[in-house]
Specification:
Blueprint lengths: L1 E5 L4 H12 L3 E6 L12 E4 L16 E4 L5 H11 L5 E7 L32 H15 L4 E6 L2 E2 L10 H8 L2 E5 L9 E2 H13 L4 E5 L8 H12 L4 E5 L1 H6 L25 H5 L7 H16 L4 H10 L6 H18 L1
Parallel strand pairs: 1-2, 1-4, 2-3, 4-5, 5-6, 6-10, 7-9, 8-11
Helix pairs in contact: 1-5, 2-3, 4-6, 6-9
Length: about 350
Amino acid sequence: MKLLILGGTKFLGRHLVEAARARHHEVTLFNRGQSNPNVFPDVEKLIGDRDGNLEALKGRRWDAVIDTSGRLPRLVKDSIAVLANAVDHYTFFSTISAYDDRSVLGIDESAALAQLSDEKSEDVVADYRPLKARCERELNERMPGRALIVRAGLIVGPYDDTGRFAYWPRRILRGGEVLAPGEPDRPVQFIHGRDLADWTIKMIENKGVGTYNVTGPEGSLTMGQFLEICRHVTGSNARFTWVAESFLLEHEVIAFSELPLWLRKVSEGMLAVSIQKALASGLILRSLESIIEETIAWDRSRLQEDDEYSRRLYDVEHKAGMAPEREKKLLAEWHARVDRAA
């Protein structure tokens, strides 16, 4: 197949390119040429901008397009206008966060989506969730029967430029007392970027359409189990102190950023959605142990590289998670409170 990827040089996009090429598909990338421009030197690259410069896409034909970068309905609509007659199939990466009620556990694809309070909004920070939902609607309305919508969970593994997942193996490797957020039995979910990419390419090959929650693991996983497996894989002497959500909120700890994989109770359904539809369609997920091992190995390999991009990326990623001095201070305050209550 001839595949067009909108993006393709960062995180998930790189996994998609690798998965497509491993299955002998011809890949073309369309992006601004700004992020990691030297990756995939033998892949065709079209330079442009989704916001006003789609000229490079005109007059071409592909079997399918994969949209990894659509966040604004206006820009998704513009891309569809150019590509609707140039491709047979359109894959759009949405998000688990697009659901309206994020407190419900076991949400499936039929649940209601978030709605924009201001139809003119293009604030991708404040309105990320309803904007992605509206992007889905634009695609379904303009390419009915030809669209695959992937509501992905937290994506992890090599090329991750957020550092959210890697924070926990790094922190546990450091050992000592670790601030563990909330309750140990609350659910968590995430998916390796390569597993997500492999499933997506196979779905495109089979002309799969419809909407899918795509995350993992196959069974249930709690935060307590996740941290224990991290400790086992790393061989660390880390010990976990579980700190109540109320205390974290009181001290303005930023959920999912300062303490990755921790969400407030009102949102924890986003880490416990149903993936039965994706599993039934052939989604295969690797073990948690292998994800942790690969993340650690990739982390270490970049520390040994001279590549400026890798070093800069590593520095950016370390902004995710809690600073050691803040963690130490919060743990001291938590112990003092517990002692007073005893």
